Amino acid sequence: MANHVRRQVREAIATRLTGLTTTGARVYVNNVDPLAVAELPALTIRNGAEQIDRQSLGSPNPYVRRAQTVIVSAHVRATSAPADTIDEIAKEVEVAMCGTIDAITLGGLAVDTMLVAIDEPRISGDGERIVASADMQFQVLLNAREGIPDAVI
Predict the structure, then answer these.
(1) What predicted TM-score, i.e. pTM, was given to this entire model?
(2) Which of 40, 42, 30 minimizes the C-alpha distance to 71?
(3) Which range of residues forms the domain containing residue 101?
(4) What is the pLDDT of residues 71-88, one digit of tens each?
(5) Residue 136, domain member (yes or no)
(6) What single string gives the DSSP state of each residue in 66-103?
(7) In 3D, which of 62, 69, 41 has the Cα closest to residue 137?
(8) Residue 141's domain is classified under what CATH number?
């Protein structure tokens, strides 16, 4: 059995975002531990809310549209201009996620991927551990069958 489509989407996004100029291989999925300053700049990826709507009636397994929110967070060490670094990372992420048809469909997994929001940068910490971060919210649309959460159609 394949992984739940939520995990498949997270992993596809992580693959797509690994190797960007600013963050390189520092891409973490479902990270719950604070990032060390040495791990910055970095991206973290997690799922947000998901809405599932039936597109057809009947049984078994009606057609459903899954609208997942995926949050990609940029984390940087706060310097004299952390917002500029976050903006550069946001540009690289946006191009990687929405710059081509293959990106928008996550290589055929999704019907569409669109950037829906970028939050204002947050600054936290103290001394040498001051970091800035900002969330980029993407909506990923998938077609599936009800009750089959590991496959898209």
Answers:
(1) 0.92
(2) 30
(3) 5-145
(4) 999 999 877 778 899 999
(5) yes
(6) EEEEEEEEEEEE--S-HHHHHHHHHHHHHHHHHSSHHH
(7) 69
(8) 3.30.70.1700
